[in-house]
Amino acid sequence: MKRFRFSLQQVLNLKTSQKYQIENEMAALQRQKLNIESNLNDLTNQWQAEQRALAMGAGRKIDADYRIRMGYLDFIDQQIVVENKTLLNVVKQISTTRERLAIVIQEEKVIKKLRDRRYEEHVAAAQKEEQNITDDMVNQRVVQDILRSTLQDK
Questions:
Q1: Which of 14, 74, 96, 126 could form a disulfide with 1 if both were Cys (CB 3.0 to 4.6 A apart)?
Q2: Is residue 144 part of a domain?
Q3: How far apart are CA 95 and CA 102, in angstroms?
Q4: Residue 23's domain spans which residues?
Q5: How many domains does the structure of the chain reveal?
Q6: In a domain? residue 53
Q7: What is the pLDDT of residues 72-116, one digit of tens each?
Q8: Residue 69 belongs to a domain
């Protein structure tokens, strides 16, 4: 039987490689998203702690400590805005990466189905060829047996 050779195997290998690359990219983006969410949580906790500290000292005069705390609160607010924008960008990247991954997976499935169909056709053709060879061998034996019997009869 002839060896099966799929002409699009290199394309299939490329699609599989792309799929793994995109999956790794997706995992990195997910880790980045988790880090940003953790940073946002930390910043929120810091902001709340500073708010509580300001509330405790609300009866005092405006002094340097109060101004420092207000400045720090403004800084935390700015950091939260920056982290939210970064998080939004990462979420968009995850969405587009997920779409790319879905496309590559679909293309890979189509090529695999084509490969399987071609392999089945190859096996069927090989079986038919083997059957033809077997039929020819049987026909030759029958012809030889007929010739021998006719020669022996004479």
A1: 126
A2: no
A3: 11
A4: 9-117
A5: 1
A6: yes
A7: 999 999 999 999 999 999 999 999 999 999 999 999 999 999 999
A8: yes
